[in-house]
Write a structure and sequence with these properties.
Layout: H1 4-10, H2 29-38, H3 45-55, H4 60-69, H5 78-113, H6 120-136, E1 140-141, H7 157-160, E2 166-167
Antiparallel strand pairs: 1-2
Helix pairs in contact: 3-5, 4-5
Length: about 170
């Protein structure tokens, strides 16, 4: 493949030379080109298009970070850079979750130091009081009112004059 410089020199020499429009280079194109030169790699137009296609879904900042952070001996392929970006994204997401957890724990610690959190002793005291109340409670009366069943001719307690059912509470 001819270098652009050689093509430009031929412009005046030959009328058969046609110039096709090239896709605009991405912001990270200069870093990719520098990386290629440092690894003695000449990038072809199809290779550049492949890089652009593979990395088009990623933010320029992450692509630039990955290209600068790459420290392999040979020129990377786009998949390597994509993996680096995915690892970085996961790390950033994890840091966000870690920040949320640390903020929650700080709030909990502050509430505990101010005495605003219930302790195991508080819950045990609450259970003890509930048991006392239930043991002292008189019989609980529950009124049972069966649903009217018009097909069977069923009657409610009110129409039959039946007394409500009494249920005794048992202590636990």
């Amino acid at each position: 493949m001819e270098r652009i410089g050689n093509m430009v020199k031929k412009v005046g020499q030959s009328r058969s030379l046609t110039i096709t429009s090239q896709p605009s280079p991405p912001q990270w194109g200069a870093i990719l080109w520098t990386l290629a030169q440092s690894r003695h790699k000449e990038l072809t137009t199809p290779e550049i298009k492949l890089w652009q296609a593979k990395l088009s879904g990623y933010p320029n900042e992450l692509v630039e970070w990955a290209l600068v952070a790459y420290n392999g001996e040979f020129f990377p392929n786009p998949s390597t850079i994509c993996r680096m970006i995915e690892v970085k994204r996961e790390a950033l997401h994890g840091e966000g979750q870690d920040r949320e957890w640390r903020a929650y724990k700080a709030g909990q610690d502050q509430a505990a130091s101010e005495g605003r959190l219930a302790t195991d002793d508080d819950y045990e005291e609450l259970r003890r009081k509930c048991r006392e109340i239930l043991e002292k409670a008189p019989a609980i009366r529950a009124e049972c009112k069966p649903k009217q069943n018009s097909q069977r001719g069923g009657k409610s307690n009110e129409s039959t004059g039946a007394e409500p059912t009494t249920v005794q509470a048992s202590g636990s």
